[in-house]
Amino acid sequence: MQESVYTKGFPVSWEELHRTAKALAWRLLEEPKFDGVIAITRGGLVPAAIVARELEIRVVDTLSAISYHDNSAEKLDEKQQETVQIVKAPSYTKTGKNWLIVDDLVDTGETAKAVRALLPKAHFATVYAKPAGRPLVDTFVTEVSQDTWIYFPWDLEPRPVDPISFNNR
């Protein structure tokens, strides 16, 4: 079993995700009006819905990409990012011109590279960005370290947790 590259965890609540996705929309107001939004599924669906609402964009399409082939938090140490597969391309555009791509996170940048190759003229925006993937997106809100695993609200259930100091002894 390979050792995990993720040494920190960063849980994100629904409220925090909503606030940060809305901040992303504020940043995107400076851009020319978009014809539509392309959500990268699955993680980009919620942020894309928030951004589309805030920017009053009614056309929302999806691009389905698979990169993490083991999504269980219990197997975090075994999690590997493999070759990205585009399993569903957007229906309304061929190049992405005047379109906004929204994802929750750019991590290593492998998904972003595949999406950029497919839609080179689109504006790519993410809520969170890690250093390895950051150069591949046009707009983001929050940068986190490469060794941080972000736990999105759809990955979590409310339960008691130990204080941070317990984990660093």
* Structure summary, number of beta strands: 8
Strand order of the largest sheet: 4-3-2-5-6-7
**Principal-axis shape:** globular
Q: What's the CATH first level?
A: Alpha Beta
Give the biggest sheet: 6 strands, mixed
What integer is the average pLDDT? 90
Throw out a few tags for this protein.
alpha/beta; Rossmann fold; 4 helices; 30% strand
Plain-language structure description:
The protein has 169 residues and is α/β, with parallel strands linked by helices. The chain has one domain: Rossmann fold, CATH 3.40.50.2020. Helices cover 22% and strands 30% of the residues. It has helices spanning 14-28, 45-54, 110-118, 164-167, and strands at residues 8-11, 36-41, 60-68, 81-88, 99-106, 123-129, 139-143, 148-151. The strands form two sheets. Strands 4-3-2-5-6-7 form a six-stranded mixed sheet, sandwiched between helices. Strands 1-8 form a two-stranded parallel ribbon. Helix 1 packs across helix 2. Residues 71-79 have low confidence and may be disordered.
Briefly characterize the structure:
The chain is α/β, with parallel strands linked by helices and 169 residues long.
Fold topology:
Layout lengths: L7 E4 L2 H15 L7 E6 L3 H10 L5 E9 L12 E8 L10 E8 L3 H9 L4 E7 L9 E5 L4 E4 L12 H4 L2
Parallel strand pairs: 1-8, 2-3, 2-5, 5-6, 6-7
Antiparallel strand pairs: 3-4
Helix pairs in contact: 1-2
